[in-house]
Amino acid sequence: MAPGDAALAARHAEHRILLCYGLFGEVVAGLRLDYMRSQADWLRGLGLAVEVVALPTAAPVLVNAARIAERIVADPRPVLLVGHSKGGLEALAALLRPGMAARCRGLVALQSPFLGSPVTDALCGIRPLHRVAHRALQALRLGSGQGLRDLTAPVRKAWMTENAAAIAELARQVPIAVVATTLDGAPWRIEEGAYRLLDRWMRSQGVGPGDGLVPLASARLLDLPLLVLPGGHRALVSRGPGRDPVGVLREQLLGLTPPPPPPAPAPHPRTR
Q1: Nearest to 89 by CA among 60, 56, 114
Q2: Around Cβ 19, how many Cβ atoms within 10 Å?
Q3: pLDDT score, position 64
Q4: What is the tens place of the pLDDT at every residue in 197-241?
Q5: Buried b (16+ CB within 10 A) or exposed e, 241-257
Q6: How does DSSP assign 50-88, residue by residue?
Q7: Domain membership flag for residue 34
């Protein structure tokens, strides 16, 4: 058992940990590739209750947020939410629903495009390609074209602006950890070649560095601290040379601390 594991297991023994996959995460997991599996196995090995929320990951964000909320209320135990990419957006939206924040003890968002992805902007901007994607997603029961459109910058920025006050209030009630990656300084790997090409294209569009799908500027959540690590878009959820998804999640869960309680109201002055 690694240092900190015993303390983490004791701290979260009475909690449920809900893992929320990103776009097409269920497809990757179904191919028996490591996608949050090593993290789930590690947590279960500590004796913790872990559940992968069954989501059609290309469904609209608010539809999946409602599904996550259903899993939160399905058991009286408090939850910790861990969301990768689109799953982090849906976990955040779930916690904004009435009564959900009181049931949550922490949110870890890994590489989530809170302000959208220019790659999705480009895909949805080509109407014939978006229509083909929409029909294919429906046929495969993975979601719809609306789920892709929900990841575009205009949709995400509008939602974040509309809900900025509610998110700020949530952050005062629930500890939130936000982590992203950048290919800057990451070792070259064949499996990340496509991410590097997309990252180069995103830079040419003036959106700055990122993990190949999510620019760092998009991964920021209001003024919360952002931890930036080297790697492509799956670096925090899949094992590989130089990758330590378990270590990243361990550090984030250990670092979740409850927000300080609000100050006590000042006593009323006594009257004579």
Answers
A1: 114
A2: 25
A3: 97
A4: 999 999 999 998 999 999 999 999 999 999 999 999 999 999 988
A5: eebebbebbbebbeebe
A6: EEE----TBS-HHHHHHHHHHHHHTSSS-EEEEEETHHH
A7: yes
- Count the domains in the chain: 1
Q: Taking the model in full, what pTM does it have?
A: 0.91
Nearest to 93 by CA among 76, 107, 79: 107
* pLDDT tops 60 at residue 272: no
Of residues 178, 184, 179, 177, the one with CA closest to residue 230 = 184
Query: What is the bridge-based pairing of β-strands 176-182 and 79-84?
Result: unpaired
CB 156 within 8 A of CB 150: yes
Q: Outline where DSSP puts E strands in the chain.
A: 16-20, 49-52, 79-84, 104-110, 176-182, 226-230
**Residue 226: inside a domain:** yes
Q: Give the CATH number for residue 68.
A: 3.40.50.1820
| CB-CB contact of 149 with 155 (8 Å) | yes
d(CA 9, CA 14): 9
Distance CA 177, CA 214 (A): 17
Residue 1 lies in a domain: no
- Mind listing the pLDDT tens digit for each residue in 131-185? 888 788 887 777 888 899 999 999 999 999 999 999 999 999 999 999 999 999 8
Is residue 221 situated within a structural domain?
A: yes
Give the pair of three-digit tokens for residue 63: 């539809």
In percent, the amount of the chain with pLDDT more than 70 equals 94
Q: Residue 86: which domain range?
A: 12-115+164-255
